[in-house]
Every structure is written in C-alpha cells, then in structure tokens.
Amino acid sequence: MGCKPGTTKVDGKRATRFCGSATAAIHAGKHWFRLSGGSCAGTSRFFTINVGTAVVAPNQSVPYFGLTLGQYPNAPKTRKPVGGDGTYHTGVLVIRWHGGAWDIDGFVRTTLWGDRSGGKFYGRTSAYPHTTLYGTFSCG
What we know:
The radius of gyration is 14 Å and the shape is globular. The protein starts with 5 loop residues before the first strand and ends with a strand. It has one domain (6-138): Lipocalin (Beta Barrel), CATH 2.40.128. A hairpin with a 4-residue loop joins strand 8 (100-113) and strand 9. The chain has no helices and ten strands. By secondary structure, it is an all-beta fold.
C-alpha cells in the first residue's frame, strides 16, 4: 500500500505523516536509532527535513525527526537565511522515539552538504538532563 503523506491521526491525536526517501541516523543520549520515510524542502531562506510522523501531543508513540533551519515561516527575526551548503548554528530540532522526547530550539550546529541533500547535526537539550543529540541525515 505504501506511505500516504499528509494529515492523519495517531491514537486519536492530530498528526502529519511524511513520506519519501529522506532518512536520519540519530544518537540521543544512550539511544541510537535510524528513521526512514521522510522528505526535505527548502527555499533560499530556509531548509527543513521531516522523517516519520509528527503528532500534536506529548509522549507520542510513533517515531519522528524534524530539523528546520534559517528564516522559516514565523522564525525569530534574528535567524539568518540558509540558502546553501555550510555550517549553521541555530534551528529547531525535534526527535520522538518510543516515548522519548528531545527538543532543541536555539543552538543546534548543523552542516549541510551536497547542495543541501544531506548533513550532520549536534546539540544539547536545554532542559534537564541536558541530553546530547547528534547524527546525520540524507534527503535521499
């Protein structure tokens, strides 16, 4: 049947499912895992990758990886555009995996390469216990 992207429900909660060839390999504290089935998008001002299903609820039960950089819609005015390859230091990172939840809104060092077709990221959550997050991603 395959993946159908768009609005859906997970455990009765609103969600957005992403499909495609994008993948992420993630280290979150003592956990290491890979996610597949996502997509990348961008303009001359921002870049985003979303893999899995984003649920509008705490403690979501399905995996998700989202990273957005640059001057995305409603971004703080201080964010700089992300129009090409290079290393950037601010963004939003959201990771959900089997009940684990890790978020960074601010410093997340990200390097984009291959005409923004992949990259790597590193950061630490601001909330205790200050988990280190790092890994790689590919737009496929």
